[in-house]
UniProtKB/TrEMBL annotation:
It is an enzyme of class 4 (lyase). GO terms for molecular function: pyridoxal phosphate binding; threonine-phosphate decarboxylase activity. The lineage of its organism: Bacteria, Pseudomonadati, Pseudomonadota, Gammaproteobacteria, Enterobacterales. Pfam families: Aminotran_1_2. This is threonine-phosphate decarboxylase. It comes from Xenorhabdus cabanillasii.
């Protein structure tokens, strides 16, 4: 099984299904689709395929810095947030790193590639899959060089307490521990600015953002990283391969922050559909559902004889099995919040699964 969601073609080929008939709940992409202005911009910029993009991506970095109210020298854009996970890992080159589990697979892969010793800090169902003050005891005892944490977390979709995160930033800064905070899904939380403002007063904090999920451009790939460590940002820019961001993605990134109507429409859609899915899933006695913060839901199936992944695939619905996340087993699943009719179809299919097996 793929390490990631969105593997429609692979699943379709493996099970002999038409890919076009599958509804993908496994990838957490905004179902509103890319903004209309994005598609128009690409059509109007077709001649750009005949030119190299600016190797420095000046306009893109300026647009990000303006939107995040930070200095241009503290920003690096990337071919999705994933490129920057690997870039920051290579730059920091930590001997020991602490990872919260379950978590996004690419943190571990990036660290394994450079031979880092990994300390797993398990999040458990008993504590609501949330980190608490015990994490500080582990940090003091194990003394890692860096920590990766996702807010909201993937796959649980849960958001740590704001005061906890502020304390974590302060602790890591005081101890010289590099703290990489992955905010790839934070744009789905309308009232949360995240930790980028803290980069103005820190040098050990690195904040990752993805534009892929919120703006529905996974085929373009675009993300960025902000840090108060301007020298580190410059070093990452110098080390990476040239032209890693294609010309279309770079141009699109310059305008996305101005898509205020699209941003508002996304928050409006999510408010209604996130609640609908959570409310409906919570009615199934066979499930334990954690309250979502982002555009996906995390739950456990407590009925041992039900394989939801295969059962829903028969209904042409692809969900994300979480058994290949460290710390989780075959009972755990993640589903994206999609359009109203798709969400209704999912609930109807689950009613059939639990009624008829």
């Amino acid at each position: 099984m793929s390490e990631h969601g969105g593997n429609i073609i692979g699943v379709a080929q493996q099970y002999g299904l038409p890919a076009g008939e599958l509804i993908d709940f496994s990838a957490n992409i905004n179902p509103l689709g890319a903004p209309a202005r994005v598609k128009a911009l690409i059509k109007d910029s077709l001649a750009d395929i005949e030119k190299y993009p600016d190797v420095e991506y000046r306009h893109l970095h300026q647009a990000i810095a303006k939107a995040q109210q930070c200095d241009y020298t503290k920003v690096i854009a990337g071919n999705g947030a994933t490129e920057l996970i690997y870039a920051v890992a290579r730059y920091l080159n930590p001997k020991r790193a602490l990872l919260l589990t379950p978590g996004f697979a690419e943190y571990r892969r990036a660290l394994q590639q450079i031979g880092t010793e990994i300390i797993d800090y398990p999040l458990a169902a008993e504590t609501g899959f949330q980190p608490d003050l015990r994490l500080f005891n582990t940090l003091a005892a194990t003394k890692p060089d860096c920590v990766f944490i996702a807010t909201p977390n993937n796959p649980t979709g849960l958001m740590p307490d704001n005061q906890f995160m502020q304390s974590l930033v302060a602790y890591c800064e005081s101890q010289g521990i590099s703290l990489i905070v992955d905010e790839s899904f934070i744009d789905f939380l309308p009232d949360n600015r995240g930790l980028i403002p803290q980069c103005a007063v820190t040098i050990h904090l690195y904040v990752l953002r993805s534009m892929t999920k919120f703006f529905a451009i996974p085929g373009l790939r675009l993300g960025y990283l902000v840090s108060g460590n301007a020298a580190g940002i410059a070093e990452m820019k110098n080390r990476r391969e040239p032209w890693s961001i294609n010309a279309f993605a770079a141009r699109v990134g310059e305008i996305l922050f101005d898509e205020h109507d699209y941003i508002s429409a996304t928050h409006q859609w999510l408010k209604s559909q996130q609640y609908y899915l959570w409310n409906q899933l919570s009615t199934f006695p066979e499930l334990t559902v954690w309250p979502p913060a982002a555009n996906f839901l995390f739950f456990r199936c407590n009925q041992p004889n039900v394989d939801l992944w295969h059962a829903l695939l028969k209904h042409r619905l692809l969900i994300r099995h979480c058994k290949n996340y460290a710390g989780l087993d075959e009972r755990y699943y993640r589903i994206a919040v999609r359009s109203e009719w798709e969400n209704q179809r999912l609930i109807a299919a689950m009613q059939q699964v639990f009624t008829y097996g």
